[in-house]
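Chapter review. Work through the record for FtsQ-type POTRA domain-containing protein before attempting the end-of-chapter questions.
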Amino acid sequence: MQKFCESFLINNGFVLRGVIVYGRNNIPIKDVKAFVEYDKEYPIFRIDLKKVLDKVSCNRWVAKCSVRRRLPDTIVIKVVERVPIAIWQYQYKHYLVDKDGRIFDIDGLTDKYGHLLHVVGKSANFYVYQLIQDMENNPTLLHEVKYAVIQGKRRWDLFIGDILVKMPEKRFDNAWRYLGQLYSEGVLNDKSIRVIDMRDENKFYVEKFNNVTLS
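Structure tokens for FtsQ-type POTRA domain-containing protein:
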């Protein structure tokens, strides 16, 4: 009886003929093709949806997903992809990073995401989301940051134009606010400035190419 029912369904077109994926932007095509490891014309009711769901969920790009049959002959996969927020450089390699610190291969995506903040250093991928949040209240200045280097999981060095800005371990917001003031006053356009050291919240040092001044 079971074979008769299956034959009846197959003869009436209840077989796999297509896979549709909604929400895919960055998931490689080769990964998509591997989501459903069943040949065409395979009985659609014999496809293990949980197995497909587990395979999709394991993809690094996937934050959420669902899988269903669309009768008579299609498997529909819906995905919500993770969103890159920065480019992380570590041990001479580059990766895309999301807000949770997950990393993705940047191959083929450099042009698309090259505008993102670049961060450098061990574990920087886990701290960059907080860094961006701390700087978002001044998006104009944020876009001037070429890259940021984490120092011992405690603080950041920012490179703004040709100037190295040493940010403090604590009260980042105060230093960032003051840095914004310097930016609006045009101080950061001074080509003679090499380093602005803001690690001491009570004063900061400006190191020029020929001398050091205390402010």
